[in-house]
Design goal:
Blueprint (H helix, E strand, L loop, with lengths): L3 H4 L1 H6 L7 H26 L3 H18 L7 E2 L2 H14 L4 H24 L11 H24 L9 H8 L7 H20 L5 H15 L29 H29 L6 H17 L6 E2 L1 H9 L6 H16 L1 H4 L4 H15 L2 H10 L1 H16 L2 H20 L4 E5 L8 E2 L12 E6 L8 H13 L7 E5 L8 H16 L3 E5 L3 H7 L3 H4 L3 E2 L2 H9 L7 H8 L1
Parallel strand pairs: 5-6, 6-7, 7-8
Antiparallel strand pairs: 1-2, 3-4, 3-5
Helix pairs in contact: 3-4, 3-10, 3-13, 3-14, 3-16, 4-12, 4-14, 5-11, 6-11, 6-12, 7-8, 7-16, 7-18, 7-19, 9-10, 9-16, 11-12, 11-13, 17-18, 18-19, 20-21
Length: about 575
């Protein structure tokens, strides 16, 4: 029997709803709606789509995820990273006519939703583990730089060609004499106001405040007469069911759908995990795929474009008291009312103000502290993040994410293939076994070489074991008769590792050492029993127990070594 929580997690979360949560959910929902209006308009300008398409995507995305998504506090809608990829995909498809561009964006949202649903059905949510922190830090920073570059022209009232950051900057420097001073002053003032407000009053979103100030200024001054471009008429955004059609080549369209699906999932799973953790909730990546997939299907069927989870608006909802999907439903309803009533009011809004909002958003995506943290912990991860950021700016978002994932995997394999090892001994008067290279006071145990391999003997690390163990044996004290392998760090074994272990044991016995095993996880032990040569070795719960058994005489040295000793 299919449970309600599986089909409609949002409704299931509202069962047993406590009235004491209502005030927080409603306040959070109204605040999210207030933030979403200027952001939706800015994203529409960024992608080159009519404002009503972004408003429809925000309205429907909020409601659909609230019903079908598993994270009760996640706010879904148009997002910076996703819109950057969407703008790139639309440019590659070479769709310039406004109506066709909107149809294509809606069709891409449908395709994105289908891919996300299929990925969730096949359990691909686990792939989220491949999105290592350096990749995410670099990707988000790259998107921020790209967003800043894309809005420089609008900030100063010029049509600036180029993509990424460097191209627009040089193009702008070559046309400084054409900059419209009123637009530049208004754009810079709005940008400074955004940055200052975010720093001084971080709990209250800056975008609605700057939007209100700009509309107040537009009511007093004749901005078009001063040469300042304005948004113009905004038709009411009334989401209507319709099947979009895109007359574009299938191959680049399919590539665009995959790119959007990957970024939608990557961008959505981050805030979902972060805010669920703060609320003490677990995240289900496959359920997130399904929720985001249905939200994108709903957006595509109602004239919107691709949506995902948004960190900034989720933070607003969380900070202001959102505790259930009712906050997102409230935001969707309030945004719907605003979209049908505020069109004439938004018409005089300066385009430079929207550019300032996006540039401030892009600047907020660049986190120097995260880069500094990577540098302090692992400089290879810092370079992975930096390469990812520069790749997003200069090459392609999806390809760069793929490259970042490959670099992260390569870094992991490098670390996994070189486990540390150590010889162990005793410290007089203290229990346990201690690493000789870390504790100068530790002494080797007479007749016993205790050697620890700090990793699992699988294909990536097996050769390391085969190299290091003979060196440890060569450095053993004279008169050593036993080799105790400390297996406490070994969790799994594969065929390559088993073969290397068998050779290592044979080499140790050829050197006259009796091999004894100590410790090891249950899965490693079960695999080891499948090798007749290894299963015959004496085995104890720990290396220390193995040493004590040898000292009590429970384990005899190899027969030929015993004969030499007696002789």
């Amino acid at each position: 029997m299919i449970r309600l929580g599986t089909i409609l997690p949002g409704l299931a979360a509202l069962r047993g709803y406590r009235p004491t949560l209502l005030a927080g959910d409603v306040a959070a929902g109204l605040s999210v709606a207030a933030v979403s209006v200027p952001m939706a308009l800015a994203y529409a300008a960024m992608v080159g789509l009519p404002p009503e398409t972004a408003l429809s995507a925000a309205i429907v995305g909020l409601a659909a995820y609230a019903l079908f998504g598993p994270s009760p506090r996640l706010v879904v809608g148009p997002d910076t990273a996703l819109c950057a990829v969407l703008a790139d995909v639309l440019a590659r498809l070479a769709v310039t006519e406004p109506a066709g561009r909107a149809e294509t964006a809606a069709a891409l949202a449908l395709g994105t939703g289908a891919v996300l649903l299929a990925a969730g059905a096949f359990g691909f949510g686990r792939a989220a583990v491949l999105l290592a922190r350096p990749v995410l830090v670099g990707f988000v920073a790259g998107v921020g730089l790209t967003l800043i570059g894309s809005q420089l022209g609008r900030l100063v009232g010029l049509d600036v060609p180029g993509s990424g950051l460097v191209g627009p900057v040089f193009a702008l420097l070559g046309r400084l004499s054409d900059v419209r001073l009123p637009t530049l002053v208004l754009g810079l003032a709005s940008l400074l106001a955004m940055l200052a407000w975010s720093r001084l009053v971080p709990r209250i979103p800056a975008a609605p405040v700057v939007l209100a100030l700009a509309l107040g200024l537009a009511a007093v001054l004749d901005l078009p007469g001063l040469g300042v471009a304005v948004l113009g008429p905004v038709p009411p955004a009334v989401p209507m069911l319709a099947l979009p059609r895109a007359d574009v080549p299938a191959e680049p369209f399919g590539e665009g759908v995959v790119a959007l699906a990957v970024i939608a999932f990557a961008s959505g799973v981050i805030p979902a995990r972060a805010f669920n953790a703060r609320a003490g909730l677990l995240s289900d990546p496959n359920a997130e795929l399904r929720g985001l997939g249905l939200a994108n299907l709903a957006a595509g069927l109602t004239g919107g474009f691709a949506v995902t989870g948004t960190s900034s608006r989720t933070a607003v909802a969380f900070t202001l008291g959102a505790r259930s999907p009712l906050a997102a439903l409230t935001a969707s309803l309030a945004l719907g009312l605003a979209a049908t009533r505020l069109g004439p009011l938004l018409a005089p809004l300066p385009v430079a103000v929207l550019a300032a909002i996006l540039i401030a958003t892009g600047a907020g995506l660049i986190d120097p502290r995260a880069f500094r943290r990577l540098w302090e912990i692992d400089r290879r991860e810092f370079w992975i993040a930096l390469i990812t950021a520069l790749g997003v700016v200069a090459v392609d978002a999806l390809k760069t994410v793929g490259l970042g994932v490959l670099l992260s995997l390569a870094n992991y394999l490098r670390m996994a293939s070189r486990p540390r090892d150590a010889r162990l001994g005793r410290i007089p008067g203290r229990p346990g076994l201690w690493k000789l290279h870390l504790h100068p006071e530790a002494k080797p145990i007479p007749r016993i070489l205790v050697w620890q391999f700090q990793g699992s003997p699988v294909f990536v690390a097996a050769d390391r074991l085969g190299e290091r163990l003979p060196r440890a044996i060569a450095k053993a004290e004279p008169g050593t008769r036993f080799l105790v392998l400390d297996c406490s760090a070994m969790t799994v074994l594969d065929s390559t590792g088993a073969e290397v272990l068998e050779r290592a044991v044979a080499a140790a016995e050829a050197a006259g050492l009796r091999v004894v095993l100590g410790g090891g996880h249950a899965r490693f032990r079960n695999r080891l029993k499948r090798s007749p040569a290894l299963a015959a070795l004496p085995w104890f719960d720990s290396a220390e127990a193995a040493v004590e058994a040898i000292e009590r005489g429970e384990i005899a040295p190899l027969a030929r070594e015993a004969a030499k000793t007696e002789g």
